[in-house]
Amino acid sequence: MKKKVVTLGEILLRLSPPGNQRFINSTSFEVNYGGAEINVAVDLANLGVDTRLVTKAPANELGDAALRHAKSYGVDTSFVARGGEKIGTYFLETGFSVRSSKVLYDRKYSAFSTVSKDEFDIDAIFEGVSLFHVSGITLAVSPEALELAELFMKTAKEKGITVSFDFNYRSKMWSLKDASIGIERVLKYVDIAFAGYLDFINILGIPMGEGYIGENILGCYKTLYPKVMEKYNFKYIVSSVRNVVSASKNLYSGFVFNGKDIEISKEYEVDIIDRVGSGDAFTSGFLYAFLADSTDNYKIEFAAASAVLKHTIPGDTNIVTKDEVEKLFKGIGYDVGR
Amino acid sequence: MKKKVVTLGEILLRLSPPGNQRFINSTSFEVNYGGAEINVAVDLANLGVDTRLVTKAPANELGDAALRHAKSYGVDTSFVARGGEKIGTYFLETGFSVRSSKVLYDRKYSAFSTVSKDEFDIDAIFEGVSLFHVSGITLAVSPEALELAELFMKTAKEKGITVSFDFNYRSKMWSLKDASIGIERVLKYVDIAFAGYLDFINILGIPMGEGYIGENILGCYKTLYPKVMEKYNFKYIVSSVRNVVSASKNLYSGFVFNGKDIEISKEYEVDIIDRVGSGDAFTSGFLYAFLADSTDNYKIEFAAASAVLKHTIPGDTNIVTKDEVEKLFKGIGYDVGR
Amino acid sequence: MKKKVVTLGEILLRLSPPGNQRFINSTSFEVNYGGAEINVAVDLANLGVDTRLVTKAPANELGDAALRHAKSYGVDTSFVARGGEKIGTYFLETGFSVRSSKVLYDRKYSAFSTVSKDEFDIDAIFEGVSLFHVSGITLAVSPEALELAELFMKTAKEKGITVSFDFNYRSKMWSLKDASIGIERVLKYVDIAFAGYLDFINILGIPMGEGYIGENILGCYKTLYPKVMEKYNFKYIVSSVRNVVSASKNLYSGFVFNGKDIEISKEYEVDIIDRVGSGDAFTSGFLYAFLADSTDNYKIEFAAASAVLKHTIPGDTNIVTKDEVEKLFKGIGYDVGR
Amino acid sequence: MKKKVVTLGEILLRLSPPGNQRFINSTSFEVNYGGAEINVAVDLANLGVDTRLVTKAPANELGDAALRHAKSYGVDTSFVARGGEKIGTYFLETGFSVRSSKVLYDRKYSAFSTVSKDEFDIDAIFEGVSLFHVSGITLAVSPEALELAELFMKTAKEKGITVSFDFNYRSKMWSLKDASIGIERVLKYVDIAFAGYLDFINILGIPMGEGYIGENILGCYKTLYPKVMEKYNFKYIVSSVRNVVSASKNLYSGFVFNGKDIEISKEYEVDIIDRVGSGDAFTSGFLYAFLADSTDNYKIEFAAASAVLKHTIPGDTNIVTKDEVEKLFKGIGYDVGR
Amino acid sequence: MKKKVVTLGEILLRLSPPGNQRFINSTSFEVNYGGAEINVAVDLANLGVDTRLVTKAPANELGDAALRHAKSYGVDTSFVARGGEKIGTYFLETGFSVRSSKVLYDRKYSAFSTVSKDEFDIDAIFEGVSLFHVSGITLAVSPEALELAELFMKTAKEKGITVSFDFNYRSKMWSLKDASIGIERVLKYVDIAFAGYLDFINILGIPMGEGYIGENILGCYKTLYPKVMEKYNFKYIVSSVRNVVSASKNLYSGFVFNGKDIEISKEYEVDIIDRVGSGDAFTSGFLYAFLADSTDNYKIEFAAASAVLKHTIPGDTNIVTKDEVEKLFKGIGYDVGR
Amino acid sequence: MKKKVVTLGEILLRLSPPGNQRFINSTSFEVNYGGAEINVAVDLANLGVDTRLVTKAPANELGDAALRHAKSYGVDTSFVARGGEKIGTYFLETGFSVRSSKVLYDRKYSAFSTVSKDEFDIDAIFEGVSLFHVSGITLAVSPEALELAELFMKTAKEKGITVSFDFNYRSKMWSLKDASIGIERVLKYVDIAFAGYLDFINILGIPMGEGYIGENILGCYKTLYPKVMEKYNFKYIVSSVRNVVSASKNLYSGFVFNGKDIEISKEYEVDIIDRVGSGDAFTSGFLYAFLADSTDNYKIEFAAASAVLKHTIPGDTNIVTKDEVEKLFKGIGYDVGR
């Protein structure tokens, strides 16, 4: 694919007890590298999109290892800044059945939190680029990161580059109020918004609207989404719908609203190996189909099937082929392995 | 929590093929340490109860390792006797789906089977103690162990300490007849009895009683349990109800009868990582709530949710927080790990 | 059991990423040895049948390791030829839930593909033997392997040895047309045919027949199977029926047609650890019951339960006891492991 | 042993690539918990000394896990403060042969760095205590930690408790100048000083002295050590001597100066599995022998043999028996394992 | 090779912490199966000798697994008795450098200890057999095992079968006095005796003899060994000489005395992965060369090189080729692996 | 570094039993990807050189995984051809002490063996390139590979690109005679030749020359190397000298001859984790220093230290920093990891 993509965000070291172990008595942690925008970059590169990552990694062996992950799938890391004290880290205990997952963050004071615009040649970074993606997590990292993200979004907008934004609200990183302030600063640059209806209500303060009947989650989009579109003038609002049966079984689907029509994907029942990165797989699936100029229906089916597959793959990134994603949403069935 | 608990029982080395492997071609065994009363001690200590373990461990490195397990969660092992030939051992092959689990015992001639009252300072052990717990497994280990358990129960009773007893019938350890004789010897000291209706019928020989209609397992408690209460004068009869869908999926609930009312917990569908110790987690959950002077409804909900969580945790012990247990039975939902 | 069995086929090295990992970033592969006829030999030997394997393994350490696998369960490997360039190899990525399994073959130019009748003393191999088994995979390996299989089948038939044949069609190994030619060459020697209705239609070109109503898969056997029997005069046609719910959950049953009556097994819902070798476990289960002169109902119940258990066991072979298989189809329930 | 010991320091999470892997492509890290004073506490508790740990651990699962490590060997953690943002962490890549080890610290902003005297009941902590141990690492963690350490040392001195101090200079934590200022603040309270001659020269600024002939490292103690003693009036100066042959082979010995005589231990050639904690094993070995009122010769032999054994044991702590240490320095030879 | 061998002894389950871990905090144990005479049987079978194992294994999955080990290398297990309570077990902590190995036995009350002659058809077992091997360990297991061993040795002698005996004294199994009584009972049947000079002195009570000068260990064989030969009339006395540099480095050689001449092997410096079974590899190496009618020099060189290689191979058994052994003692050098 | 490098060769899947296990009973194989010229490319890219790999990988998941390895260290794989049947594979059993390593090749019929010049745009590949490297292994793969290598070398020479060639003779791949013919075809294009004196004597048939005295291996270079230079007019002949003490200990050094002077590196004693790729690390070390226009002494010291470090790093590639290499040959000593 000819179109180039840039993403901006923090690269994280993820440490997780193997198998179904708990933190308390685990004698080893599995090592993965990820982060919302890094995952989108890796997922897209894996699907053949020319992708460039903008981040800041510490100038030590763990920074090297994190970037090795991105490079291994073909992401261009030549514009990554190096420096700062430490790699952002999180510890993940993966839940099972009735037992929830647990996450401990250790990302304060990270290399990326000290990011500055002087570390990047933005014009060179955006040369030949079609789409820029960033998420609310980057905005939440630090004031410096928020400022940088805003600059990238503004510049992209000015250069006619499509701007994609995933709300990705994390209550452990900022309050609803801070998120509201931070996100409002950047929404004017956004073309494609990945968000759920609660994000609009809780963060943007847009009321659900009259006429909504609560029994069907999709009903709300007839009252709420048009109001969002009116205010922010997005090209697309894209949402996933997750029904949590247990920590290891979810129902999953997605829909896209283009201001006029809603396209709704199939719903899947998925057993979960690792759900981290499934939201990013949803985003990267949608953006891949968007860049390929497919129909809205194809876009949302590709996004949902991509996200669903991610749940079955260890690690943060969704290493699947276009063919695997299509086979899934087209219902072609299972290869039995012989 | 200020209340102190003492448990008495055998500490066992558990060896199990990793993952879903079978004994026949496994090249390693995972090592855990447990045993019914040890599990109750560790579970309670983990929840913050001051707990003391009475057992006998061999004076070798495996005895050290077993006690290290108990100490690591804060159990007081200062009254543990050391000596004997070997650590009691069992080999566990964990079943999956249509394939059953398998257990091989190698606990005959163990250190604990040679236990004697001369090895323990019972008065010191019981100083400041509120509750003593033991199970039928200890009674079945050897005549020496039965005698010791009886002495501990009798002494506890005399000192006004609540006596908790789990029938825990194991057909590989003793016959129904021997169990009947052994258990009858100690029931007079028991305040809280953990047992199922089959225990009462098969071991104590109490008939189900007229008026019972078999379609609902709870029905039997209207005819059978009052007769048990009349005879043994327990404060509580506590029972779990397990519906085995497959080796890796069970339905699980519990109920408690206080001589007057029955409180019944929610029923859970649970996928199983490791069901060993779930009965002990039920017991420890109940005792924790009992020591906290909670309502009977809270007691049984805490017990059942505690047991259900155990199925998702590798090893014999239920390393959960009070908060996790409460969230489960209050239906607060799943933390998705971010 | 006194009856001796011979099987002929390629022994393969199987390499698979551990757990639920994908090929792309796996840092180790689990090692197993198998192959359709090797699996049948090992499964039967494990059940106590005197079994002899005929194959050709490379004269190197991997050939030694492959034969060690067969010997470890008691298979007689004294007639195995050694030589050729390499061991046939396949790479298996095990699917999970919505994600399919993947297989990559690297078996062309294998030791077994260069097999020749001069390497075997057929009369000695068949001494005292009751049953000979081979599958379509062996026929597909190479012209040399097809010729050898035909010679073994013809010789067995002449010696009054029961000939068992599993169609085992593999589209990655030969076309339907080549399979049709190859399989037709040998069917005249076959007593017991393991095949599905699609094999008869697609490979043998026998039409479904009138009167079939498609809603029930078993219906087809009233119209199709009698025609097959008429043409080939098998003693038994044995088929499994697999309903793929997901890559990790299947519904599974089997039936046998003896030319007159159909016996249908129970249907099982099975969670899957490793489905490779389940077809061979079905075959070996049937043959075991056949050699034991059991009823047709017992044969198919044993076959289906045997196959179902295989799905829960890592590796290609079905290391189960007769007791485990019987307990499953008799519905005796689960040993809870204590 | 009746004598009680208190140590004060930071508990750290250690993460290290398994085997001989490097950071860059390691897919898991082994988990250990340690820290200089924690190691001394665990080593002493393991040898049977009643030991109490004073530290501050975060109130999360990693804090729990770290304390579980200390408790598992019998260390009393009942006075540990909980709170702060994160557990201090370090990443260790273990060298081999010509390849050096690498350490990355991520301990800034740790829970312990925010320690305050208000979090501890010092009088209760020191009740019945004979010896207090701390090292220069604690002083270097933060001004708050230095202040707390000084307070503990001063209080111990006032209460007649022996004060043990290990210089443990870490250039990654503070400069020589800062170390000089910090260490000078506390030396007046010290009875037993663990330090090398370079510590005295570089940190305390005491010149080597005339008459030293450089060919023998022990020679320097005739000129330098008496001057140190004169100034600081220690009871003992204890030093280890390490000759680094390669990252996996060292020569190791120790000596102790009591102001009058020097006792020198045997020199050992040791192959290295894990040298982290060997200095702490030297310290704990000496203190164990000191508490047992042994001869100075025994003290230093026990210290050196203890340290040497540590190099062969994975993890930070020296889990050995008194018998193993004595057998080593008495040259009793190797048990061949049968 | 046409000659058949029978060995008699206990098959053991060996459990050992992986890598260089200690028992105390190991979370898994590696599983191996072995035992002195089982090792000799497996080693010989691996070299192509037709070998039959006589033992008694419990009729459970661990018994199956143990026999699977023997079968996997081609040992005939068709005469193995099944029954008894448990498999003999030992726990091995492998030493490293200055740290000794540790062994804990749990073999009392094992299946083999209850062995009886009624369980074996001795005539059938010895049909066509050239050599019978047993060691002192079998004699030490139980009075029943000693009686059985004596019967096998006596019968072998009567049938003209060469009797090989390895003293294999284990102080954890019997006292020197009991060993003396037990071994004296059987020495009259022995043709080939594997023993060291201390065995003759300490167990048989034969004095070193005059004229020996202690500086060279081989010197003693001029005074002691002729006296042994005179009394017991062995065909060969075979001894290994081990110089323990550390737990992971030994010097190793061997020599054989045929009553007239001594042949001495090369001495090797060997780094140790796993020294268990090296004595058995020495024995099997000698017996292999003996059965091949080689020269005495070849016999002892083959024995020593075989034993030396064993030290580098994990597990109890010496899975090497004749070619590898010969290359080692012929000094052909190292294949660099490309 | 501005200078660009191209290497041409086969990318291989390497499978090796973990730890010190043998093939026969290993239940998993570690996965690495390498190959002589791939290793040089990865090593150089890791040191910061802009490096491009030319190879052909199968269009399947294992081909993807192999390229992921190269990409992860920054190698440009955009010119890699995809297709062919399978990935070249080799199985490596790593020796230890007295036990040799073993290699089994399964690379015949590999994707790379079917390489053709039509699959590559040579002019584009060489754009801006300073140095081209290939080894004798590529020449030995197949006639097609030899032809391609010759074309690349010829083209490079014509374009003024430095041509580097490593003899890398592999007796398992071609005979000395075939190697002689193949290598002679390309030597006229070579500027830098990596070869040992035996390569010149055995492959090129150049006699040692008079005046050589065999006691010092370097002596031969006074008689032999000038003759080689005279005939082939290389810029440099670079040789390593390896003294194999055991499979896990080597002495290693290198020297370079520039037609006039010999520069000899230090000699190192190195303990070996994984010696595969050490020759490539020697080559890449030399080329790195060559591209940096360093002195000949620096070049050979960097090459030797680079190779020596490789022995301590698992896998085929030498992931070290310039700083680590320099510290080693400058003798700066060991970082003790704190």
Summarize the SSE layout with pairings.
6 copies of one chain form a homohexamer.
Chain A: E1 4-8, E2 12-16, E3 28-34, H1 36-46, E4 50-54, E5 56-57, H2 61-72, E6 81-82, E7 88-93, E8 102-106, H3 122-125, E9 129-135, H4 136-141, H5 143-158, E10 162-166, H6 176-186, E11 192-194, H7 197-203, H8 220-223, H9 225-232, E12 236-246, E13 249-257, E14 262-264, E15 268-271, H10 278-291, H11 296-310, H12 322-329
Parallel strand pairs in A: 1-4, 1-9, 2-7, 5-6, 9-10, 10-11, 11-12
Antiparallel strand pairs in A: 2-3, 7-8, 12-13, 13-14, 13-15
Helix pairs in contact in A: 1-10, 10-11, 11-12
Oligomer: homohexamer
**Any idea what the radius of gyration of chain A is?**
19 Å
- Alpha-carbon distance between the two ends of chain A: 32 Å
Mean pLDDT of chain A: 94
Specify the helix fraction band of chain A: 25-40%
Label the CATH architecture of chain A. 3-Layer(aba) Sandwich
Structural class of chain A: alpha/beta
Number of structural domains of chain A? 1
- Mind summarizing the main beta sheet of chain A? 9 strands, mixed
User: What is the assigned CATH homologous superfamily of chain A?
Assistant: Ribokinase
Judging from the principal axes of the Cα atoms, what is the shape of chain A? globular
How many helices of chain A? The count is 12
Largest interface: A-D, 28 and 28 residues
Order of helices and strands of chain A: EEEHEEHEEEHEHHEHEHHHEEEEHHH
The beta-strand count of chain A equals 15
CATH topology tier name of chain A: UDP-N-acetylmuramoyl-L-alanine:D-glutamate ligase
| Percentage of β-strand residues of chain A | 15-25%
CATH class designation of chain A = Alpha Beta
GO molecular function, one term (chains A, B, C, D, E, F): kinase activity
InterPro entries (chains A, B, C, D, E, F): Carb_kinase_PfkB-like, PfkB_dom, Ribokinase-like
Family (chains A, B, C, D, E, F): Belongs to the carbohydrate kinase PfkB family.
Protein name (chains A, B, C, D, E, F): PfkB domain protein
